[in-house]
Amino acid sequence: MPVSKRSNSSYWYIQFQYNGKTYIKSSKTTDKSIAKQMEALWRSQLIQSHQLGVKPSISITEAFQRYSTSKSDLSSHKALSRWCRRATTYFNNHSLTNVHQITSRDIESWRISLQQSGLGNQSIKHAMNQVGAMVKYMKKLGYNVSEIELPTIRTSKGRLRYLSVDEERRLLAEIDPYREVKGLPPFNERHTELQRQMVDFYDLVILLLDTGARQGEICRLSWEQIDLSKRTIQLWRPKVSNESVLYMTNRVYQILLRRSNNPDGSHVFRSKSGINRNHTTNPFRKAFKRAEIDGATAHTLRHTHATRLIQHGLSLYEVKEILGHSDIKTTMRYAHIEQQSVSRKATMVIDRFNGDGDSD
């Protein structure tokens, strides 16, 4: 029979053979007549695809779900999933059901809608990119899609923000877990969970400052990636699908050595539920505000690391390897800092040549 019931489900299941292959799936309905119609449509689509080269359709809802699932290993997966859900709602509300119905005009309409809702160009660009990536992924899987063109959205990177030595000092003072906090008892009298959270955040900031890693990379760091005897961190970077081996600074080594004496699970940093620490921005926002540091985010710590390396003699290509960039073009945003460093060196050379520098 093309449709049948199973003892463990109230739904009708579709099952048939075509071209030597068995096809089976749940109809997600308890109505037998609807299940039969779905079976006939599915069989028709397969025949068209095989005999006429017609590609099968896929719903916008299912397509975004499958695309989101394929990116579940990314640190930005939660944000990506939110954009996927938002796009699904928008297109479904505008009478679009299947992916092949989405046109460039529909995407431009969504862009205008997002702009009118008050979102900035950077956020809108993220939204557009998820639609384009989803359509590309469905095309790769063999589904029927339209040729679309994403709108060009200009974004300004603005001034490269990194912390000065004084700003870092103020930040670390404001997140020192042993500091006096108004309304809280001394550290040793605080709740155990609060102690853990305060120590964790301080340690996390130090690791971000001294490794230049992305927040998600450190949040997912497991003890298997740590080699204290060699003082190395084997860092997997899901954003660019590459791996780096980073050597520990003295303060990173001391932090990891201390934490290794009393590990709290398989990850260096854990959440309340016992898995790896969540990728969140609120603690950073509050810490920067207390330290009176404007325009800084968690990513500013990565910029700070890269900037200091360049200021103290490392080349852009060396910094590219440290940061794990897949393309030197990404590292080129630090080019003006390298130019400043080179200019200072050049001045010292000319001063020595002119006899104005310190003699050896």
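Second entry:
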Amino acid sequence: MMKSLYLSNRFFLALGVLAVLFALSFALSFLFPVAVGLSVIALALFLAEIYFVYRHKNPLDGRRSTPNLLSLSDKNKIRLTIHNNTNQAFKLEVIDELPPELDVRDFSFHSDIKPQENIQHLYTVTPLTRGKYHFGHLNCFISTLLHFVQRRIQLAQPEIVPVYPSIIQMKELELKTLASIAIMPGIKKLRRLGHSYEFEQIKHYQRGDDIRSINWKASSRRNELMINQYEDERSQQIYCIIDKSRVMRMPFRGLTLMDYAINTSLALSNIILKKNDKPGLITFSDKLGSIIPAAAHNRQLQKILNALYGEKERELEANYELLHYATRRLINGRSLILLFTNFESSFALERVLPTLRKVNQNHLLVVVLFINTEIEAFAKQSPQTTEDLYRQTTAEKFLFEKKRMVHRLRQYGIQTIFTRPEDLSINAINKYLELKAKGMI
């Protein structure tokens, strides 16, 4: 009993008032009987409240409803349900023991719970790292209207919930990408610029269709314009290759560049499967990590998800010769390769540019470079001092150098995605759809 009994702030406030009355009674003797009387009343109320909060063995039942897995960087809903088993009303304070990775130390809520009432509380958590998250007990503190004491009741057993790459984002982007009309911002609906070799059907001509596809024989028979419709090329190999070296450890909005790349790789792999192509995955740094050959079977997305879940950043620099070896030995046939990496200086790019050119000779290479949004925001500020002007000039020079790196890659026919980290998923999917529409893959 003593371990679950807690004294409230109201109890100590009442105790302080009584102490002041007793102190004043030394100078004002008529206050002494008043102080004694109030002390007796306070003690009686204190004991009565202890009785009312402890007279039921199990006054509350409760549970925590969590998803089977949490999505990285998304708002995940968690529901608390608490039931009053008694015919007595309580004042209720609930403290949920959240995982330390969430860095939330003051989560609680207050409520009044009536006899035999069910109350629910919905809140969200946003995990910023992958891994196993340990939820502790659900601590409920009950008291009466006096609120002198509280009884702690522990509900909901501790549980472990894994945090996987963002499945919520993956589903949202699937909805945006596969919608027949581009009613949602972000995803671009691109008209196919060329023909594949797979004929699908003859359909009625609509404004905007390629007039080169008009089927004149069918049009003459129907006395209206008919057009040949072709399917997109299918079963193309699309590889997401993630650099997990130290250059990808930079955090933006709580997520590292590598986690942005991981979320994007999962979302893009899902779109690739929906487009009847074959997604694959390779991770590397100073050594090769996960290797999942491109395939289009039902278990492919689950394999990619599990591989991405277990990836960790490494402190060493990336070995691009190893990347070249992997693309030659592990990837059969010409494929589209999206390389998620980052270069912070022209020197770093020039050092690996010959290797990237070799990869681009055998495959269609797309290099993803990130805009440093913090430097970008700093460069847009108005300088107040000479020192601020110097720093702003340095920031603008850094941003200009990044743009030069993009131009340098394009000089050698290497496709690029130059994006803010938070826009990576949208831009990567748009790039894939663009290259597919142009018939480059």
